[in-house]
Amino acid sequence: MPGDSEAGAGQVGPDEAWGLSSSLTPPDTMCTPEETSLLQVEETFLALLGRINTLVFQPLLLAEEPSNVKDQECLRLLLQLSEQYQHLWDLTQVSLRTLRQRLNSPATIGLHTLHLLHSSDLFLDAYRQYFVIYTSCVAVQTFQKATRKKSEFWRSQRKALKQFLTNVTLETSGAAGLPHVLCQPLTDHVQQYVLILLRLGDAVGEHHSARELAIQAADRFVTLQSFIRRALDEASATQALWEMLGSRLGDALCTADRRLLLDSQEVPAVASPVRADRVLLFNDVLVLLQGHSFQTFDLKLVWVDGRHNKKQMSNRYGFHVITPEEEFSLSAKDAQGKACWLSKVSQAICQALRGKRDIPVLEQDQDQEGAEPPASRCCLYTFRTEDRLRLATYDGSWFWGKPHGKGTLKWPDGRNHVGDFHQGLEHGFGIHLVPHGAEDKYNCYKCHWREGQMQGYGICEYANESVYKGYFRDNMRQGFGVLESSPQAPQPFKFIGHWDRDKKDGYGVLEDKDRGERYIGMWQADHRHGQGIVVTQSGICYQRTFHVDKMVGPGILLLEDDSLYEGSFTRDLAYTGKGKITFPNGYFLKASFSTGVGKGFHTQGVLETTAHPLDPMHTCKRQLGLEAFPVESRWQGIYQQFREFIHSNCPEDAQEAFLGFHVQTAKELRKSQEYLFCDRSNPDEVSAKIKDVLAELPTHQDPESLQLYLQKALKSSAHPLGKLVKLLTLAFQATYSGFGANKHLLGLAQEEVKHHAQEIWAFYQGLLRVALERQGQIQEEREDTSESHPEAYRLVLPIILPCFYPELFMLYMLYHEKEDNLYSQGIADLSLFPDTKLLECLDVQRHLWPLKDLTLTTNQRYSLVRDKCFLSATECLQKIITTVDPREKLEMLEKTYVEIENTVSRVLEREHKLPMDDLLPLLIYVVSRARIQHLGAEIHLIRDMMDPIHRGGLYDFLLTALESCYEHIQKEDMRLHRLAGVHNQKALW
Amino acid sequence: MMAIRELKVCLLGDTGVGKSSIVCRFVQDHFDHNISPTIGASFMTKTVPCGNELHKFLIWDTAGQERFHSLAPMYYRGSAAAVIVYDITKQDSFNTLKKWVKELKEHGPENIVMAIAGNKCDLSDIREVPMKDAKEYAESIGAVVVETSAKCAINIEELFQGISRQIPPLDPHENGNNGAIRLGKQTPQASRRCC
User: Fold this and answer.
1) Which chain B residue's Cα is nearest to A939?
2) Which residue in chain A has the smallest CA separation from B23?
3) Which residues cross the membrane (chain B) (predicted)?
4) What is the pLDDT of residues A543-573, one digit of tens each?
5) Contact B52/A at CB under 8 A
6) CATH number of A816-988: 1.20.1050.80, 1.10.287.110, 3.30.300.30, 2.30.30.100?
């Protein structure tokens, strides 16, 4: 730094020489005398600055290496001060240069070119900076400290220093004058600027373009003067305070930038309920002194409330102070005192929040003096005492002393919360990290919070890489949720089901990928407990009672060869104790079983070989779990969220928490998509925001529009209805896909799908009710509260069925596998028959044969043509596999019948109504020609999913007729085969 | 407003005895408010008043051929009534009728109302089955019996009135499990998942 100042000093020489020479030139007549005097003032000032630099700054900065922190701080301040001093010096030189240029050729160079005029803000800033640092030096007594060591030298300089000061009598101590030397010449100069600029403004006259500039500059310097006065006052008051407080307290509180703004010894104020002898307001903190201890409060986190509505306020001249961890009141003696404290504190808070601590009050700030500090602020704070937040650091938005808005909270133990806060608590969406053990691993909760607790939908990625997606309550897993291990885990698993206080509880499905097993059943406190079904990869399936993970009592074991074991067995499927095996051929073995040592199992019992007619419902068609898991209670946890949402009247702020994601309003959506190149959404897509949903619902009440709306809503995963379907699909797939594709579970599955339709309908009605209520329409309570809603079948089921169809149809296929195989054989055999032969075999009356439809080429005979008769009906029937909607399938079926009748009418050339005697054979013919795969599965799926309103009606009849054809083809099989062999070999081959 | 009861009625009888003719006559001869969906002559509906109720007959035809006998249970399950038709000029058809009655007693729905129709009574000169035999038989099984002629529209109406009378009136406090189906609301039915 000394080098720098030398360079600065070196600059002076030539400039001064140049300045002197030009000052000899007489001023131009165009110039005002003020400009000339300004020139003189600047020249004198520059010379003064040079001398001060040489005599004061250079020796001051020649200090030896600072030995302690305080000295370092001291030197740092002096260096800063010197830097600003150089800056001022440079500015003054530029000012002088512009003055000279102007004076040399006043005709060409205008008044406004003066640096002092057009860049007065630069001067203002430079002086302000200088005095900020200067006052810091004063406050912390930098000059005294710096001169103490070399007091001898400074005493000798006494005379030299005195020349800079005009009307100050110097004390005996050598260095005492030093601070004045660094201050007074500059303040004097500013004073001269003001005087000259004001005169200049007057002199140039009202219409001069530079007049504005001159007046503005003068104003600015007046402001600067008041700033300097105030800064000096504050600095000396602060310095006096530090001295008064003594070294211990003083050192603890003293910082270079800190200034005392108000002292309770000056304007009395008492704090309560905290005890304090003295209250000090600084520019950055509020301090309560009590004996030798003190409490500081960062002003950025201080809120004051001067309203009188606080009843607990003992003194009516009091006001409330709120900080993150303390709340107290300050009471003044009188109204004036209160006003003084309130305004000073508020003003100090405003300034502290503006954050530029090195630029304190300027005159223009006083406009804002009355302004209230904002209630909502953003800053960082480390909690000291509060239990939950001890030593935690919060960085983010605050509101009246509490974290509120977006923020980050970090605990010293590594916990970390980023998200929304409300009244000091986590509230809204947040990501919470909890370090796990010594490893660099975390449990990561991405979750919705409510008053500091995890609540609603969330995702937790655990340190062991398993992931939970589901609902929480009071920081614990509660309700419906899916826990899945990482695929690399030693024992990979996936649990989908219900939770209670963080543990698996209630109905749930656990897939143990290691054992190749799926458990479907009841849980309690993380254990299998109650009724349970296990299905294995190899197709074995059993139902048992579990007690804390152990199987107890007898169970039912269904093997893949359709044999049945009733009794007790181990988890590895070894039979133990008394039991009964029923073989697929109807034999059964009643025996007692035991595992032998290493040689399979031993048994002793009676084998019953009298052929019993075997009830298929008992073995191969046996359905498990129907009584054990009533369908209404199976997926309670999923419905529950939706029911609660309705019951609480669909609060908008809860929607996100319950759906688990952010939903946009239609408006936002449109806006966000304006920028997209391709519009991914259908323009008339349903909006998912609950407000829009509720507004839209009542407009879609007529059946047609309702159907369209439901179609869109149920397919949109952002819509509450669609979300429900999505969750239900998830649960359904987890149960019935993969290992779960077991024919013994068909009953559970089809019941579930139908029940889902009911629940979705009920949810829709709940939403509608809330929507109508919001519009002020009170809907009369429906008298019919029974569980079966025809709308569920008519409207909902066809829309949701595709979601469940793959798994459901697979179950139907497995269930009807045997029949379908027989049927396929029958179809294959019948397909060898030419049309006329087949019609004959089926005893279709000859006059009904559509021989007209057969166009023969010359070498063809009727008896050779295949797949030509009733083609339109056949093709129509084949279409039933192109849709999953049972109603559409039935419509296709109806068309098939119509086509048959049309064909017959055409043949007979008159309208003919077919009685069943004629229709059934024709239908068998059409079915055998349509060759639909898995027809048994199709028929039964249609029947189970059909709207019950059709029972006994036309559709039921049609379906029954189709089913009877299907049955007949299975039976007819062998006979036709024989017929074909004996009778008509010639025709066939 | 009168309650509409849907009644499934199943038509049984040998082929050629005129099962569907009877129904066609019943359905088409009279003015019917509801234009009913039909599948040819195989499925027909007709609504008639009975007391303070309306009975909507859902009439299911079956194939009479011997080879399709085994399929009949699919058709008559859930029926409230069965109309068993024989041809008074064919003793064989009366024998078949007896077989049907026996089968219904054993495998049919409980409390099924049976109605015996001796069709083609216009051809009584070539009658093979005496009226007396039919009446005695019907009495022994508690069935409605009439001799009808679909051709001449004799006793067709009476046949179905007979059935209506035999259907026990609906007890509003109880879902009578007599196979009747109320509109819009299903009777709890044993879950059926077998073919």
Assistant:
1) B195
2) A915
3) none
4) 999 999 888 888 889 888 888 888 888 887 8
5) no
6) 1.20.1050.80
Q: b vs e for A47-77, b when ≥16 Cβ sit within 10 Å of the residue's Cβ? A: ebbbbbbbbbbbebbeeeeeeeeebebbbeb
B window 122-181, beta carbon within 8 A of A: 181
- Whether residue B39 and residue A897 make contact (CB cut-off 8 A), yes or no, is yes
Q: Which SS3 state, helix, strand or coil, does residue A836 take? A: helix
Expressed in percent and rounded to 5, the helix, strand and coil fractions of chain B are: 35, 25, 40
| B15 contact residues in A (CB cutoff 8 A) | 917
Interface of B with A in 3-32 (CB under 8 A): 6, 8, 11, 15-16, 19-20, 24
> Is the distance from CB of A391 to CB of A409 less than 8 angstroms?
no
Identify the helix (H) or strand (E) that includes residue B69.
Answer: none
Asked if B16 lies within 8 A of A917 by C-beta distance, the reply is: yes
Where do the structural domains in chain A lie, given as residue ranges? 2-10+34-234, 259-372, 677-814, 816-988
SS3 A249: helix
Side chain identity, residue A285? V
A529 touches chain B (CB under 8 A): no
> To the nearest whole angstrom, how far is the Cα of B104 from the nearest Cα of chain A?
18
Contacts of A660 (CB under 8 A, 6+ apart): A448, A456, A457, A458, A459, A723
Top-tier CATH class for A259-372: mainly beta
Which pLDDT value is given to residue A554?
A: 87
**CB-CB under 8 Å, B40 with A897:** yes
- CB atoms B38 and A913 under 8 Å: yes
Mapped to the 3 state alphabet, what secondary structure does B181-194 carry?
Answer: EECCECCCCCCCCC
Residue A359, pLDDT score = 43
**Most trustworthy range by pLDDT among A766-775, A959-968, B20-29, B62-71:** A959-968
Mean pLDDT, rounded, of chain B? 79
Asked whether the domain spanning A816-988 has the same topology as the one spanning A2-10+34-234, the reply is no
Report the candidate in A506, A529, A531, A532 with the shortest Cα–Cα distance to residue A519: A532
Q: Which of residues 759-818 of A touch B (CB under 8 A)?
A: 786, 788, 790, 815-816
Q: How many CB atoms lie within 10 A of CB A688?
A: 25
Q: Is the pLDDT of residue B63 over 70?
A: yes
Between A and B, how many CB-CB pairs are < 8 A?
114
Q: How far is B89 from chain A (nearest CA, A)?
A: 20
State how beta strands A541-547 and A527-536 pair. antiparallel
Give the pLDDT of residue A814: 92
Q: Which of B38, B61, B67 has its CB closest to that of A916?
A: B61
Give me the mean pLDDT over the B172-187 stretch.
43
Q: Which residues of chain A have pLDDT under 70?
A: 1-30, 63-66, 165-176, 308-315, 355-371, 438, 595-601, 611-614, 660-688, 778-788, 855-862, 972-989
Q: How far apart are CA A198 and CA A37, in angstroms?
A: 13
Query: What fold, for A2-10+34-234?
Result: Dbl Homology Domain; Chain A (1.20.900)
Residue B189 has pLDDT above 80, yes or no: no
Domains, chain B, ranges and CATH?
Answer: 3-166 (3.40.50.300)
ipTM of the complex as predicted: 0.87
Q: Which residues of B touch A917 (CB under 8 A)?
A: 15-16, 19-20, 61, 63-65
- With 60 as the cut, is the pLDDT of residue B185 above it? no
Note the pLDDT of residue B29: 63
Is residue B179 very low, low, confident or very high in pLDDT (cuts 50, 70, 90)? very low
Comparing alpha-carbon positions, the chain A residue that sits nearest to B63 is A917
Contacts of B62 in chain A (CB under 8 A): 916
The arithmetic mean of pLDDT across residues B139-157, rounded, is 86
B87 touches chain A (CB under 8 A): no
Mean pLDDT (whole number) for B118-140: 88
Whether residues A952 and B193 touch (CB distance < 8 A) is answered with no
